[in-house]
Amino acid sequence: MTKLDQYLDAATRTNTRRSYEGAIRHFEVEAGGHLPATADQVARYLAEYADQLSVNTLRHRIAALALWHRDHGFADPTRAPIVRKTLKGIQALHPNVEKRATPLQLTQLGQVADWLDGAITAARDRGDQPAVLHHLRDRALVLLGFWRGFRGDELLRLQVEHLHLVEGQGMTCFLAQSKSDRQNVGRTYRVPALSRWCPVAATEAWIAAAGLVDGPLFRRVDRWGRVADEPLHPNSLIPLLRRLLTHAGLPAPGEYSSHSLRRGFAGWANANGWDVKALMEYVGWKDVHSAMRYIDGSDAFGQQRIEAALTAASMGPKRISSS
User: Fold this and answer.
1) Cys-Cys with 225: which of 130, 163, 190, 318 at CB 3.0–4.6 Å?
2) Which of 50, 68, 93 is the last residue of a domain?
């Protein structure tokens, strides 16, 4: 690979590149499509999978096909009217209900953290160092993910050498890349040191126990307690979190995902008086629409406001009938 190829490759995020490659592979292998494709072929592909894939997934497939054609110097067939009209028809006949991760509440976070504390103590008592490392890593990952509102991919991008302890206040984390950082300029996040369920203390404990100096912060630990050089695989985060919730005794762990940490913090901050601007700046959202997708109001169904209005109406002045 030439230096130019390296820079071009780096311009596309790893997760995006991997998902686009999967989309192209699906079009060619599973659907039997040919590249470069015509607009009619793309439209027929959409129609073929309209009742199997969500509209969002189909939009992703179109984006991948569009990028492939642009990168290889071909006209983009996805911009043709027949493709746009087909997708519009699919959306009308197969409406998509957006699925959102169940937010992890603060009390549930505490339940998980307390279970991990007990598991660490028990593992130390029986001399099980691999288990100690597993639990220390998981505690740092959950607490840091919640209190900073990190996405799963952001947690896996954290590098040990980019963490800096600020005595008595907290810790800074520099992220060279994130989903909201389209220009790849990087951003520094500040993590508060807390009196309970502290993400800074948990991260320090994990780094010290694993003997980390640089490289990925969150890594795989094998059965013999050996810490890998590579970060955890992205697909391992959701099973890891659900396993922790199960051990901690939380009901319906299958309803949670790595986004549950981010949504949980956003909901907690909103309920505790953070205004939207402060929350957006802290978490890293660029627009209000993105923020509102993560925030559930305290009266999401409007029940309290309506009941208050009904109560006020029932206590209003009564009409005096004339005799």
Assistant:
1) 130
2) 93
pLDDT tens digit sequence for 223-232? 999 999 999 9
For the chain, the C-alpha Rg in angstroms (whole number) is: 25
Question: Distances from the Cα of 311 to the Cαs of 63, 273, 306, 320, in angstroms?
Answer: 52, 26, 9, 20
Contact 112, 142 (CB under 8 A): yes
> What is the chain's mean pLDDT, rounded?
85
Q: Residue ranges of the alpha helices (H) in the chain?
A: 3-10, 14-25, 39-48, 55-71, 81-93, 106-125, 129-148, 152-157, 199-210, 237-247, 259-271, 276-283, 288-292, 303-314
Indicate the residue type of 319: R
3-state secondary structure of 229: strand
How far apart (Å, rounded) are the C-alpha atoms in residues 245 and 252?
Answer: 9
Residue with tokens 């949980």: 264
Q: In terms of residue numbers, what domain contains 225?
A: 106-292
Query: What tokens were used for 133?
Result: 């490392």
Beta-carbon count within 10 A of 140 CB: 25
Q: How far apart are CA 265 and CA 146, in angstroms?
A: 6
CB 120 within 8 A of CB 132: yes
Name the strand (E) or helix (H) holding 165: strand 163-166
Using one digit for the tens of pLDDT, what is the confidence trace for 156-190?
A: 999 999 999 887 789 999 988 665 545 556 788 99
Query: Residue 266: which of 250, 254, 255, 282 has the closest Cα?
Result: 282
Is the same domain home to 130 and 216? yes
Domains in the chain: how many in total? 2
> Which amino acid appears at position 10 of this protein?
A
What gap in Å lies between CA 133 and CA 135, rounded to an integer?
A: 5
**236: how many CB neighbours lie within 10 A of its CB?**
14
- Boundary residue ending a domain (93, 116, 144): 93
